[in-house]
């Protein structure tokens, strides 16, 4: 089919433009305002500096083959070419673009052409997991979507043997990026093969068997998984079948800053899918419909914590919505005018969501820039404890500064108390026993009063801080606190409520606080 025979939304130029347009929200911010990303950037600095760096007095870093290495590996060449911060920016910008490209490729392969309804799925590239800063996960899912497009294309061309050989290489690469991406690819490929076999007249039992045979080329990462999990790994798997949480995650699929708008956007996607089921002009592909059912089962069965990684089930929600939306197509009776109207509506929906993400990211980036001026007053290799204010309630607009303290590692090679310390799930562990509770995440998250979680009130943290273990205290958007607790410290920088103190008197001790959780 030539380009002249395609509708405007299917043409190569439009597909390229949509893919590039997905990068727009990330163009302005120096550091993408994704919750966990600054923490990951701190780890990259320790990784890149090597054993001879002074920062290794604070952290241990040991390479290992784990299913969570995507950006950790990519940043090695990117940092040499562009520097750490800009290298991370380019990689992160590529993730939503690759996700959009993967969605459109799948739509093209499943339907033979890109249906106008596929445009509605594109904002899901900025789903809640990506905004949370799960960059290895999001990158692996983008790779999985692209790989599934290739899987379908090779099947359409009758190149099953070539496909088996190619995916013997692709599957381990996606697993190394992040385990979830490989799992997603397995679900996509198996469900597609199952329906393809059944459509050829094969019974369901034999179709299951043949689909499994076709997917054997995706199996080698199982050996890598066994090797990984048999090592010194502390991450647990827990919190199964938490129905209220799962419903909450689904509602928060497009969570960013404005709750009414984000929830309304999810409602639009759900309404589109429901309308397609009962429409005379739309239908849902059996291939992607079956895939959506498989993903729903996976979402229901996944616990909240897998191998120490939290929000495991939440991470699936954008794809749980994207696959059925991509699966919608026009029936033969649909008119050209109807198709054009859908395409325009989908394009507007994508554009409005990207605009909202762009504004939201610009607001968060301004907060980053303001807070990070504190680092101008922090010397190299300082011992820094940071506290980022948080509400006991789970507010819709997430706290983007939760791990911003790690930029002190990036720019000053300082110690920061926000790194994750979990053997086997991360390559980095902390080496600062004198910091006590304040050596790792979540000690950097503070509240106004006691909460029913692991966070501590700022007053408690200031009172119990081992001053001889740190040189500076950095407060970012802190709650109200007792100024007496900063006695023996010198305020050397302030911008709004953000403050940086130098610890002068290391002998100060306060009576231990008694914590009582708020209801």
UniProtKB/TrEMBL annotation:
Keywords: Membrane, Transmembrane, Transmembrane helix. The keyword Membrane applies. It comes from the Bacteria. The chain crosses the membrane at residues 12-31, 61-79, 86-106, 126-152, 164-192, 204-228, 260-278, 290-312, 333-352. This is Glycosyltransferase RgtA/B/C/D-like domain-containing protein. It comes from Sphingomonas paeninsulae.
């Amino acid at each position: 089919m030539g380009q002249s025979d395609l509708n405007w939304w299917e043409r190569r130029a439009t597909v390229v433009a949509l893919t590039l347009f997905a990068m727009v929200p990330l163009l302005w911010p120096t550091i993408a305002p994704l919750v966990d990303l600054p923490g990951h950037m701190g780890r990259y600095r320790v990784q890149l500096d090597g054993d001879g760096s002074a920062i290794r007095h604070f952290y241990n870093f040991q390479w290992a083959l784990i299913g969570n290495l995507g950006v950790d590996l990519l940043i090695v060449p990117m940092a040499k070419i562009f520097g750490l911060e800009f290298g991370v920016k380019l990689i992160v910008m590529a993730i939503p673009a690759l996700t959009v490209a993967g969605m459109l490729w799948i739509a093209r392969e499943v339907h033979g052409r890109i249906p106008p309804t596929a445009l509605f799925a594109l904002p899901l590239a900025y789903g809640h997991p990506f905004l949370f800063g799960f960059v290895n996960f999001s990158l692996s899912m983008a790779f999985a979507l692209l790989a599934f497009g290739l899987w379908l294309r090779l099947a359409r061309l009758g190149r099953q043997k070539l496909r088996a050989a190619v995916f013997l290489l692709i599957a381990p690469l996606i697993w190394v990026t992040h385990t979830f991406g490989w799992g997603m690819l397995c679900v996509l490929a198996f469900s597609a093969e199952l329906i393809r076999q059944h459509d050829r007249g094969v019974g369901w039992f034999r179709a299951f068997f043949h689909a499994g045979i076709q997917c054997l080329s995706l199996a080698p990462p199982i050996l890598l998984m066994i090797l990984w999990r048999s090592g010194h790994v502390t991450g647990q798997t827990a919190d199964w079948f938490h129905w209220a949480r799962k419903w909450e995650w689904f509602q928060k699929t497009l969570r960013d800053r404005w709750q009414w708008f984000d929830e309304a956007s999810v409602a639009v996607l759900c309404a589109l899918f429901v309308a397609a089921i009962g429409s005379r002009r739309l239908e849902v592909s059996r291939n992607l419909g079956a895939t959506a059912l498989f993903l729903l089962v996976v979402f229901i069965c996944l616990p909240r914590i897998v191998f120490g990684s939290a929000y495991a089930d939440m991470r699936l929600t954008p794809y749980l919505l994207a696959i059925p939306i991509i699966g919608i197509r026009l029936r033969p009776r649909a008119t050209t005018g109807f198709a054009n109207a859908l395409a325009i509506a989908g394009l507007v929906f994508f554009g409005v969501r990207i605009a909202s993400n762009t504004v939201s990211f610009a607001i968060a980036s301004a907060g980053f820039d303001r807070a990070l001026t504190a680092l101008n007053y922090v010397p190299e290799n300082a011992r820094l404890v940071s506290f980022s204010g948080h509400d006991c309630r789970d507010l819709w607009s997430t706290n983007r500064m939760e791990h911003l303290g790690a930029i002190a590692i990036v720019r000053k090679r300082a110690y920061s108390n926000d790194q994750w310390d979990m053997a086997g799930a991360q390559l980095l562990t902390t080496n600062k026993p004198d910091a006590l509770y304040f050596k790792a995440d979540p000690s950097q998250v503070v509240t106004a009063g006691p909460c029913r979680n692991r966070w501590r009130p700022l007053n408690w943290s200031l009172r119990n801080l081992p001053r001889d273990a740190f040189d500076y205290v950095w407060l970012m958007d802190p709650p109200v606190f007792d100024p007496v607790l900063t006695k023996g410290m010198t305020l050397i920088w302030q911008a709004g409520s953000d403050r940086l103190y130098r610890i002068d008197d290391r002998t100060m001790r306060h009576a231990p606080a008694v914590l009582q959780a708020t209801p």
